[in-house]
């Protein structure tokens, strides 16, 4: 069913499951705060608990971007600045 809300046993807003089925896609769990979709409930719950609405804790040492996950900084460094993050931190010595 499209956009069916399934109430969980907990009353918290973040614990409401919104199951969405689209053509060619598996059932997703949507964050009720930002609408981001996940294929697994635990991934959605982690997003809600650690990421949603929070500023990034991991900052790029070269530019002003910040990320909620360390691996995203590493990927950003490799793609945008053409080097691994550890290389940029140790290259100044």
TrEMBL record:
<keyword id="KW-0863">Zinc-finger</keyword>
<keyword id="KW-0479">Metal-binding</keyword>
<feature type="compositionally biased region" description="Acidic residues">
    <location>
        <begin position="9"/>
        <end position="23"/>
    </location>
</feature>
<dbReference type="InterPro" id="IPR036236">
    <property type="entry name" value="Znf_C2H2_sf"/>
</dbReference>
<feature type="domain" description="C2H2-type">
    <location>
        <begin position="29"/>
        <end position="56"/>
    </location>
</feature>
<keyword id="KW-0862">Zinc</keyword>
<dbReference type="Pfam" id="PF00096">
    <property type="entry name" value="zf-C2H2"/>
</dbReference>
<feature type="region of interest" description="Disordered">
    <location>
        <begin position="1"/>
        <end position="23"/>
    </location>
</feature>
<dbReference type="InterPro" id="IPR013087">
    <property type="entry name" value="Znf_C2H2_type"/>
</dbReference>
<protein>
    <recommendedName>
        <fullName>C2H2-type domain-containing protein</fullName>
    </recommendedName>
</protein>
<feature type="domain" description="C2H2-type">
    <location>
        <begin position="58"/>
        <end position="86"/>
    </location>
</feature>
């Amino acid at each position: 069913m499209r956009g069916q809300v399934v109430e969980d046993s907990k009353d918290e807003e973040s614990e409401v499951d919104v199951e969405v089925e689209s053509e060619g896609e598996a059932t997703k769990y949507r964050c009720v705060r930002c609408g981001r979709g996940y294929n697994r409930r635990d991934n959605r719950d982690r997003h809600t608990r650690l990421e949603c609405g929070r500023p990034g804790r991991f900052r790029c040492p070269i530019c002003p971007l910040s990320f909620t996950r360390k691996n995203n900084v590493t990927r950003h460094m490799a793609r945008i600045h053409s080097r691994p993050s550890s290389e940029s931190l140790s290259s100044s010595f």
